[in-house]
Amino acid sequence: MARVGKLRWGDTLDDEDLLPPPTVKGPDDHGVKTMVEYFKNEKGDAIKKTTKIKVVTVEKKVYKVTEERRKWPRFGLAARETPQDSVTVQAVEEIPFERVRQVKATTQEKKATDIQQVLATADKTVISGSIKEMLYKKRMERELLRAKGLLKEAEKPPEEDGKGGSGPGMGAPKPGSYQPPNLRNRGGGEGESMMKKREDNSIRVTNLSEDVTEGDLQELFRPFGPVSRIFLAVDKQTGENRGFAFVNYVHREDADRAIRNLNGFGYDNLILRVEWAQPREAK
Amino acid sequence: MRPYLLKGHERPLTQVKYNREGDLLVSCAKNLQPCLWSSEDGRRIGTYEGHNGAIWTCDITWDSDRLITGSADQTVRIWDLPTGKELCQFRHREPCRAVKLSAGERFLAVTSDAFMESQPAVHIYNFAENIEDQSTEPALTWNVPKGRCTRVFWTDCNRKLITSHDYGKLRRWDVETGALLQEETVHEDAIQDMQMSPDESHVITASLDKTAKLIDIESFQVLKTYKTGRFVQSAAMSPLFDHVVMGGGQDASQVTTTAAQAGGFEARFFHKIFQEEFGRVRGHFGPINTIAFHPSGRSFTTGGEDGYVRVHHMDLDYYTTKFF
Prior knowledge:
Largest interface: A-B, 30 and 47 residues
Number of strands of chain A: 11
Largest sheet of chain B: 4 strands, antiparallel
Shape of chain A: elongated
CATH class of chain B: Mainly Beta
Shape of chain B: globular
Helix content of chain A: 25-40%
Number of strands of chain B: 28
CATH architecture of chain B: 7 Propeller
Order of helices and strands of chain A: HEEEHHEEHHHEHEEHEEE
Structural class of chain B: mainly beta
CATH superfamily of chain B: YVTN repeat-like/Quinoprotein amine dehydrogenase
Number of helices of chain A: 8
CATH architecture of the domain at 198-276 in chain A: 2-Layer Sandwich
CATH topology of chain B: Methylamine Dehydrogenase, Chain H
CATH superfamily of the domain at 198-276 in chain A: RRM (RNA recognition motif) domain
Strand order of the largest sheet of chain B: 1-28-27-26
CATH topology of the domain at 198-276 in chain A: Alpha-Beta Plaits
Number of domains of chain B: 1
Order of helices and strands of chain B: EEEEEEEEEEEEEEEEEEEEEEEHEEEEEH
Largest sheet of chain A: 4 strands, antiparallel
Helix content of chain B: under 10%
Distance between the termini of chain B: 21 Å
Structural class of chain A: alpha+beta
Oligomer: heterodimer
Strand order of the largest sheet of chain A: 7-8-6-11
CATH class of the domain at 198-276 in chain A: Alpha Beta
């Protein structure tokens, strides 16, 4: 079978050995190099494979002397070492440069120290004065929002002297809105065991940021009087807190004062909600 | 990044040092052979055989021709760096803790620990250009107060020495007479490492009081303090950015009793001016004993109590990220 002249496609199909030779083109103006190869797969089909590679030239300045040092013969233990010794290994896993979120921690710390300073330096009147000031600012902001119709009537700010009990938004929950478990089935028979807890002067703190620790709460609530217990709800899986906590005071007046002063208090960019652990009326 | 793990020492590392161009890296450890590595790919080029005790420190000449090592076997040795041949040794009666060549490399400062009846001391040698002319006797020796003298630097056109010590002390000495010129307590505990800034205007000290400090050379005034909450064994300054990196971790004797995560064995990056931490690189499973930045600032090397040297080449985002 002497083949003369051009190949016919019918012939090439018959003949297994005949595949066009691989070609390499480029790199072109964009630095793209194109390579075309032909091969047969296991089924005997002819496959055309096109590979495009971008060629980038990187210029790197090196010392002349360091290039010469590359030629140094190895000596000592290095001359006797074999690849099996694996003296030098490149780490298999990718080691990240981990960012440390410093900013958040510092603002929190700053806030904590601010509060501490206020609490440490002045007597109680000044404290309540400064916190009152903050509360006033917050209230004015909310007032402004309400005037614009942005804040619903239900979210009225709490009264300054704390009718406490029902707390904001707790009296008449909107249908379908979230209700804390302790308020569900109100008037239902269960809650016998809860009654006991209500005896102690327990207040509930919600809308905490996830960075808050028990120590922070201690700092926050301690100044109002002796605290007998602080419970911060922590998610078992994630280890982060769940945004609410219970604080028990030894004296009822202290708890009352804490509620009056800290409800609506801006802490770590969130506005705290502090109220009695359950409505007073339930007593 | 994927660091190179260099397993040339089975014992804790004591110092890693780059040469001037940064293509070579010398590591010293508590085993007997210091190693020479290519910093680019971590290839071991050679080892220096002859010491008979832990190697505490080393220094490399400007032209990377000689290596000077100080050892607990009470000798300081000068090596031909490219071939590993020992050229000369100075015999002491005490372990040698720190060595440093002067600017111009006409002199060599060696510090020694207290041992038997001898007190800790500083020794000044003439450093000869031709090894045949090298004298093995110190030109000048003076005693220093109690405690290790962990690092030494030449300052003020080779007229003065500054040394870091146990008990958090920095001292300045007159080289001509050996007179004590200044003494400051800058740390509350031992200074483990001291490294010079590229412009030789300030040093960074790493201390067991859990801080590293930036200290002005002229006045010994503390410029910046970096609080880490753990022992700092070594700290280095980036020649490229206003970054400092420090390594350390809990006490070596407690390593086995706690989880690796709790040990704090990462290399920690602080901003030099703001004194705030912004990044960490983990990897060692023991405290980092020594840390060094490449002269270009594009890679850094850590040596750990675990016997590993890790050479990190920075990823692109280290240069592009705005950390502050």
